[in-house]
Amino acid sequence: SGRFTYDPGFTSTASCESKLTYIDGEEGILLHRGYSIEQLSEDSSFMEVAYLMLRGELPTPDEYEEFTRTITLHTMVHEQLKTLYNGFRRDAHPMAIMCGVVGALSAFYHDSTDINDPEQRKIASHRMIAKMPTIAAMAYKYAIGQPFLYPDNSLSYTGNFLRMTFGVPAEPYEVNPVVERALDRIFILHADHEQNASTSTVRLAGSSGANPFACIAAGIACLWGPAHGGANEAALNMLTEIGHPSRIPEYIARAKDKDDPFRLMGFGHRVYKNYDPRATVMRKTVREVLSSLGVTNPVFDVALQLEEMALNDDYFIEKKLFPNVDFYSGIILSAIGFPTSMFTALFALARTVGWVAQWNEMIEDPAQRIGRPRQLYTGPTQRDYIPLDKR
Ligand code: CMC
């Protein structure tokens, strides 16, 4: 009891008003600025969705052209930023590097940190969206000991990221259009998801007036956890560990066992209690990508059979646990050639659009105040200090 509403995990507290993303968890509906995720992921592009989220409307062809050009102008990172990478161990997790390097952007771009100036906020937003692919690709290159590649602005946002990741200076790199489209779709599906943990983290960090790049770094730190963005990596690792459909029942039994902390990774969602509409799109895309690349992946069979067994199991039915977006994204990403350790970095790259749009919306909201949750204190009541020699 107390003067405050107790709501651990914020299951029933609206922290803000927002015009960006609508979710109906019972019906499995996800809309960005009113447009369904099914239509956006089918017909739109990630850059168009970025424009939509930042500006509120779909761009005209001229606006689209100008926006992509503007983002393109910011794809390079300061040369000095490169030296930061050398301070990391080669076996550092890419998300550890991302937390550090994105946070460090706040030490580089001083002309876009006055958050009360809409023009500076715009530049900071463009910079963040533009530099994330470069920073993520550099984290990968550093891990495998290959030289960093500069961005090539004749390519699309996603094509450019593929080249910076998989290209080498010595060879020309051909962007595979099927891979480019699939990855762009994954980016669209991850662009925003209203007040999830990492987005709430960005808003909370930003509510104190903190440096915009530092706020995004806070979001990256939160996303890293296996209950959130880290689930795509954990899901693929789990499917690989299961290895063969015959071992699925053992894992399902473990997931149901209350004495075993194991959970089926890529299953369940705080808001979706019917199905995750992003998972439906992703499931379709997996088939397209695997057949077009000619990749046969035994992990996909494990995934499909696991899904079927879980969906017909009373435990999962009663608890309304369905595959979420991360259950399938990992299969596509590994078919493309990304190591599992990069999966969450890709999620961060895409979610940057949502973080930046939400951060701007918060700053422009006249009702915005510093975020300051209260608590129910359950510690001791007031008591007298006893000197050390008397204890
Ligand atoms: N496997 C087995 N049991 C589960 C699972 C699972 N994946 N997810 C939830 N449960 C059970 C849980 O044990 C609990 O049972 P009980 O009521 O008997 O204690 C019940 O279902 C409700 O779970 P909860 O943890 O109270 O639900 P939540 O809303 O706090 O957590 C979640 C949601 C996504 C963190 C959780 O379902 C989970 O840990 N899933 C696995 C990780 C995962 O895939 N995360 C990605 C989320 S989607 C991408 C993103 O937005 O980042």
Task: Give a description of the structure.
This protein has two domains: 10-226 and 343-364, Citrate Synthase, domain 1; 231-336, Orthogonal Bundle (Cytochrome p450-Terp, domain 2). The chain is 54% helix and 3% strand. It has 17 helices and three strands. The protein starts with 20 loop residues before the first strand and ends in a 27-residue tail after the last helix. The protein is mainly alpha-helical and 391 residues long. Strands 1-2-3 form a three-stranded antiparallel beta sheet. Carboxymethyl coenzyme *A binds at residues 9, 193, 196, 227-229, 231, 255, 263-270, 319, 321, 324-326.
Instruction: Extract low-pLDDT stretches.
Output: none
Q: What is the alpha-carbon Rg in Å?
A: 22 Å
Question: Strands across the major sheet, in which order?
Answer: 1-2-3
CATH class of the largest domain: Mainly Alpha
Bound molecules: carboxymethyl coenzyme *A
How do the SSEs run, as a string of H and E? EEEHHHHHHHHHHHHHHHHH
- Beta-sheet strand percentage? under 5%
Major sheet details? 3 strands, antiparallel
Please tell me the CATH architecture of the largest domain by its name: Orthogonal Bundle
The class by helix and strand makeup works out as mainly alpha
Please identify which CATH superfamily of the largest domain we are dealing with. Answer: Citrate Synthase, domain 1
